[in-house]
Amino acid sequence: MRILMSTRGWPYAEVVLRFGAQISYRAGEPPTVLVVINREEDRPRADSILARARELLKPAIPDVRTRIRIGHPAEEIIREAEEGHYDLLIVGERKQRNLVARILQGSTAAHVVEHAPCPVIIAKGETTGRIRRILLCESGAQRPSLLTRFTAQLTGLIEGEEDITVLHVMSQMSAWPGTRGKNLRANAEELIEEHTPEGELLEQDIHLLERPGIVPHPKVRHGLVVDEILAEAQSGDYDLVVIGAHRSEGWRRILLDDLAHQIMVQVNRPILVVR
Amino acid sequence: MEEPRREDPDPKNPDPLELTCSRRKPIGLPEVLRVVWARVDPVKIGLFTASLFLFILAIALMKDGARGIAPIVRDGLSVTNAANCLGFGWLFAYSIMSGSPVAAAALTFFDAGVIDRLGAFTMITGSRLGASFIVLFLGFIYVLRGRDRATSLGMGLLSLTVTGTTYLLGLIIGTFILQTEALDWVQLRSGTLLNSITDLIFDPITGMISGTIPRWGTFLVGLGIIMLSFKLFDRCLPQMTIKESQVGQVSRLVYRPWVMFVLGAGITMISMSVSISLSILLPLSNRGFIRRENAIPYIMGANITTFIDTLLAAVLLDNPPAFTIVFVEMFSITVVSIVILVTAYHRYERMMLDFVEWVTDSNTNLAIFMAIIFLVPLILMFV
Questions:
Q1: Cα–Cα nearest to A111, from A83, A75, A81
Q2: I need a surface site. Which of B72, B158, B287, B363 has the fewest CB within 10 A?
């Protein structure tokens, strides 16, 4: 698994490198650390960032590759990901304090997630770098399912000792008074037992995760999708939250709400966006 | 995997889509007209014509009888100020389980000088608040039959709560606009030709009815006829085939709020009723579900275009200030809805859903809510 870590300097770099080191170690392939600078004169600063990164990663990964690119950060990260045929991109989240700049420029991480050719991890929040508890948010709205895409694209990410919660949020309510709404309040086990579409989706995911050492938990929450995912991510002490990317094709891109962006912005955990 | 092959169309029963989209067969106008004609349902056209005829007749009768009912409204029920009108419109809509006839009645009262323009405005607002009780009432019937409380009452409560909050904020904006006369230039008359035609057709009928019964009775006959016209109109609505469209998955996907807002407004522009528009959502899901995220903006959009029939009533009354009143109503609700959608939609959404959850949480909460929605209009009647 080819991994690209992008950083713009300290203190944001540390969380990216710690997280990236853990994943690269699992993948068994040295990662590439990328620094994007705005102009040639910034090269000494980039060299210093990369030197410090090499030093930090040295105990776990002695042969780190480094790259420097000049230009717009998000565009250069995407270009490098495309040219280098990477399988996973890890970026940090730099909080833009200036409201005007935030509105005009947007977040680099959000731009990268939207246009990247591969899955993206936004390393943020307080993390030790280890990945033991994973929250996988399965909507069931896309085929193949999120878990199928996750396992197909990032096999090396799962070591076999993880505790994985497969979460489905039922935000549905009755559209008309006469509706029988027993399933609207059912938990995961009840939905699986009743063979509802949600139950079948969870059951299929649990089968996919049946490997030695992995402990899968199906879970259903009721409420607004974004709120429930954030609440679960906060309460469950997860090391990584996995979500699907917003659909980027055709009319659906315009018609459907970008829940992935809302979760990505608000969650205070490392988050993996699978395409 | 091999792509499923499309079967050849039956030559005796050609697929209209094939006729219009095929590149191989150039089609002529007569063929297109034949296909269109094959889809026309004469019964529905008849129902539509009848409902339109009855609607115009009802407005004419209510206009004629409004002065006769003035003593009952003004002296008997003490409807003299804007607050009374709000409460009166609200309770009136509860009693006949419909808002549009009450809104039309408000315009005829205004036309007859029974109430002033602020009174007409608040009575129309009251009519919508009362009408939004219909879905909740249906929910109560299901609860009495033993169905689950939260499922049966959820949509009715949400519809009522969203309508209540947006209309009460709209009431403030609308009152300000009417008092400052900022939109008084927005007026529309029915025109001499339309007046002549309607007078020619409907004057003999209204003359005959008002000659045989007292004037207040003419108003009540008009009210009965307008309710009948809405019933007929509901039956002639075309089958909505949005299920296969890009917005036909409201039970599975979460749409952007403005998409659902426009959808709600668009469907209600045709159906003219919020409750009918909500019922149209039902066949979109086999299980009768809708995403919470999709419901609120849909109701907000529906609450604006539900005034289309009241606008038509204002035009038929040939009373330009009445048209302004309805326009101000639509304008103020639109402003409130757009401000909410743009600035604080997610907070508003959570507040509404939390409130609905609180109401259905216990019988006590439900009783408190019911007491409020009946006591408030009653109190307003005596202010």
A1: A75
A2: B363
